[in-house]
Amino acid sequence: MKFDQIKQIYPEAQLVHEPKNTNVTVSFPFKDQWIQFNAATKTNRELDLLQLMFKPEQAPLQHAAKQSDWYAFLLGERNELPEKTGDFRVIQFALLKKDQQFDQKTWLKAFKSMFESVDEAFFIDETAGLLIQSESAGKLTVEELSAIIQTLDDDFSIKTICYIGQFWPFNSDFRSIIMEEQIIFNKQKNKTSALFSLPTVALNYYTAEALEKSPLMQALKKKFIGQPEWKELVLAMWHSQGNISLAAKSLYVHRNTLQYRIDRFYELSGLSLRDMNDLLLCYLLLL
């Protein structure tokens, strides 16, 4: 499909050189650029359809992956469980902006070296794959992993998006849980940071559809769409969990300036960002 044809269907679509995914915009890879859409005007079903439209075509799987017990089990080629015990997590990854010189095997080896107790790692297509890790004493934080992956991206001149799964007991429920994590990854990877986990996206993922169906919430949301400066204020207060000093620091403003903005926000919206219930409601309106 050509960009002109997409433009006829979605007049607001734009070609950009770098992806910009926020609560109001969403980007998808298109040839050597990105197509940016207005996410605020799209339903979840439309966004899912766009995700399918711009999903890269899958290349034939590597022979090594085909022989993997983990691959066969997690992707549904066999129902019996591999002979494993303990807790495991699956780290999903997708590579963006790789060039023709990219060496898949070298990158995968470097990626595996970042984690302890790796049981297996493999690509499932040209750009995406899974790493299975058994639970161990040494666990890097999301912030530490993010810094390491950024260094790896710089070395290989690519961009990596990762979902850090939870550790789950290896039992008959394991595959269905991982399948849900895969759905979460595919739906949220263009809406959040390059490295994320369930706690960072759960509220967004599990409430977005319900909010979309609510006339009351949609009516409130219209107020927020018309006030773009509110988003920055609400997010700063949410990320600081109501701590005004931390929020002021993140916004690079004086505490008194932020106090004034919060008071002004209350006058216009009737919602107090000092109250955690009101703050949660305001955050939900941005999802």
Structure description:
With 287 residues, the chain is α+β, with helices and mostly antiparallel strands. It folds into three domains: 51 residues, no CATH class; 139 residues, 2-Layer Sandwich (Alpha-Beta Plaits), CATH 3.30.70; 72 residues, Orthogonal Bundle (Arc Repressor Mutant, subunit A), CATH 1.10.10. It is built from 13 helices and nine strands. The strands form two sheets. Strands 4, 5, 6, 7, 8 and 9 form a six-stranded mixed sheet that branches. The radius of gyration is 21 Å and the shape is globular. The two termini are 30 Å apart. About 3% of the residues have low confidence. This is Helix-turn-helix domain-containing protein. It comes from Carnobacterium antarcticum.
Radius of gyration: 21 Å
CATH architecture of the largest domain: 2-Layer Sandwich
- Could you say what the CATH topology of the largest domain is called? Alpha-Beta Plaits
The number of distinct β-strands equals 9
Structural class by helix and strand composition? alpha+beta
What coarse outline follows from CA principal-axis ratios? globular
Largest sheet: 6 strands, mixed
How many distinct helices?
13
How many individual domains? 3
Any idea of the CATH class of the largest domain? Alpha Beta
Residues in β-strands, percent: 15-25%
Helix content: 40-55%
Keywords:
globular; three-stranded antiparallel sheet; Alpha-Beta Plaits; 13 helices; six-stranded mixed sheet; alpha+beta; Homeodomain-like_sf; PucR_C-HTH_sf; Arc Repressor Mutant, subunit A; 17% strand; 287 residues; 3 domains; Helix-turn-helix domain-containing protein; PucR_C-HTH_dom
